[in-house]
Amino acid sequence: MKLVTAARMREIDRIHIMDRGIPAEVLMEAAGRAIARHFAGMMPEPGRAVVLCGKGNNGGDGLVAARFLHSIGWKVEVLSTSGNFTDAAQNARAQLPTGTPIRRVEDIADLVGWLRDFDGAIDALLGTGAKGALREDFAELVEALNMSRIFVLAADIPTGLNADTGEAPLAVIAHVTVTIGRPKIGMVRGRGPEVTGRVIVEPIQFEPAILDGGDVRTETLLPDEATRLLPHRPLDGNKGTFGLCLVVAGSDAMPGAAVLATLGALRSGCGLVRAFAPSAVRSALAIHAPEALLPLSASARSATHLALDPTRWNELMQKTDSIVIGPGMGMESGTRDLLYQVLEKGHVPTVIDADALNMIAEENDLRALLDESHVLTPHPGELARLMSRSTSEIQQDRFVAAADAADRFGCTVVLKGRGTLVATPGGPIAHVGTGNTALAKGGSGDLLAGLIGGLLAQGLAPAHAAQLGCWVHGLAADVAAREQSTRGLLMRDIADAIPRAFHEVEQQAH
Questions:
Q1: Which is nearest to 69 in space by CA: 49, 54, 93, 42?
Q2: Are 50 and 102 in contact (CB under 8 A)?
Q3: Which residues fall within 8 angstroms of residue 160, CB to CB, at 6 or more apart?
Q4: Which one of 76, 152, 187, 306 counts the least CB within 10 Å of its CB?
Q5: By C-alpha distance, which of 376, 452, 465 is closest to 414?
Q6: Highest mean pLDDT: which of 84-88, 120-124, 311-315?
Q7: How far apart are CA 235 and CA 233, in angstroms?
Q8: 4 by DSSP, 3-state: which?
Q9: In what side-by-side order are the strands of the sheet with 75-80?
Q10: Whole-number Å distance between alpha carbons of 106 and 98
Q11: Which DSSP category does 169 fall into?
């Protein structure tokens, strides 16, 4: 689903009001009713609700929500920061049931205590147009609402969150945000994920073609979209049907990288995984990934010394549907030759990770071999080296950095980290919202590289394999964390949770 800026959302409003002839009051009515419906649906029964309203259209949405909640049995009070409203909001105020209390912030001595008397609150103070530090009365109310710890639903966007940048020095921390039209890009940047809670998108009466029009390149992956990416599994399929992934990884210093990349590929659903690994790694693979094939015998300490004659290599490539190269393989003198051999031969879909990325950052002739069949999976530091920038520059605007890298290298780029991004050359930059801090451990990227490689082997296009792989990787961490804790999980625990994550993705289709 497209992510929009505040300016684009204003343009969407303008088109529908001016060109399509839908009155602003009609759109406000639809938005307010949707907000109230979701609020009521999250409560066991009607109770006491407070609606925090600013004077603008966001406040008008809140006033409509207050009226609708009252009509279905809620006791509602409105807390306002202003006695004046815009024309559309004033119309909504006039339709409030007689006797609905409308209180001013300055009239309440103990805001926190007063708010705690309610079962929940709707934050309709400020919308997408707000920027910069909050005014003193808004700041006081936001702090009190957060301190009250009651259930909070934000109307369109939490007050205090910049809709474009994700900056939020002080913002409402919502449990749920019902956003109108399309999600705002600031919801997935900066502090956005922290303050928005669960995001529900309400398109109301906006036309889909207009919502997704313009030159918007950013999007966020939704559960049903992840489901549509699942590779088909014919009932009469066999191990050959589901593809063969070759994992080139590991060294005597980092055998675990090869194990985790291989486990990721095996858990992806592909038919066969060949692990091209040195002798120091083979025993670990035999124990922890016995399903993998170990086609080569070698006494070398790293993958770079697994010398293959051209005939043997060509035979191997003819039987390979995808490759994963780089995790833990080291950067010894022969590694570059091995990577060159992989990239040069036949455009087999390839995931390039870790040490392979660092070699590409140092070698112009390796970069020249990149094409649309490749998926790069850098963390911010690795992308900084690839792009000759600092890590802070990459993190300053991750969307721009991922897009620049995809356009420059002509291939799919996965920028890992909080809010992983998948960028394609000239195409969308997709935000993947699954995952948690359990993934902030060594080996996480190795597991992800193998998972994406296994999906490539099943015939998914590079961008789709990267999007689905990132979604399932993060969801596996979420599944494992629900069952245990983010603190003590190891990557092998997350690898074991991948089938349960796939099950959740499959359930979206039912």
A1: 49
A2: no
A3: 126, 130, 134, 138, 142, 168, 169, 170, 171, 172, 195
A4: 306
A5: 376
A6: 120-124
A7: 6
A8: strand
A9: 102-104, 75-80, 48-53, 120-124, 151-155, 176-180, 198-202
A10: 23
A11: S
Average pLDDT of 399-418?
Answer: 97
pLDDT tens track for 417-431: 999 999 999 999 999
Question: Which pLDDT score is estimated for 298?
Answer: 45
Beta bridge partners of 154: 123, 177
Structure tokens at 116: 């705690």
The span from the CA of 94 to the CA of 297, in Å, is 81
Q: What mean pLDDT, rounded, does the chain reach?
A: 91
Collapsing DSSP states into helix, strand and coil, what is residue 380?
Answer: helix
Give the homologous superfamily in CATH for domain 6-213. Answer: YjeF N-terminal domain (3.40.50.10260)
Whether residue 288 contacts residue 281, with contact meaning beta carbons closer than 8 Å, is answered with no
Instruction: Tell which residue, 74, 75, 194, has the closest CA to residue 146.
Output: 194
DSSP 350-385: EEE-THHHHHHHH-HHHHTT--TTEEE---HHHHHH
Largest pairwise CA distance in the chain: 87
Q: Is 420 helix (H, G, I), strand (E, B) or coil?
A: strand
| Dihedral sign, Cα of residue 258, residue 260, residue 261, residue 266 | positive
Global pTM?
A: 0.91
Where do the structural domains in the chain lie, given as residue ranges?
6-213, 227-507
> What would the CATH number be for the domain defined by 227-507?
3.40.1190.20
Three-state DSSP class for residue 394: helix
Residues 6+ away with beta carbon under 8 Å from 449: 261, 264, 324, 326, 327, 351, 353, 354, 377
pLDDT tens-digit readout, 266-316: 999 999 999 987 777 888 999 999 999 986 544 444 444 444 566 766 777
CB contact burial 163-183 (16+ within 10 A = b; e otherwise): bbbbbbeebbbbebbbbbbbb
Residue 193 to residue 171: CA distance in whole angstroms: 12
466: nearest Cα among 318, 272, 259, 324:
324
Tokens encoding 459: 């015939």
Residues pairing with 276 in the sheet: 248
Q: Which residues pair with 482 in a beta bridge?
A: none
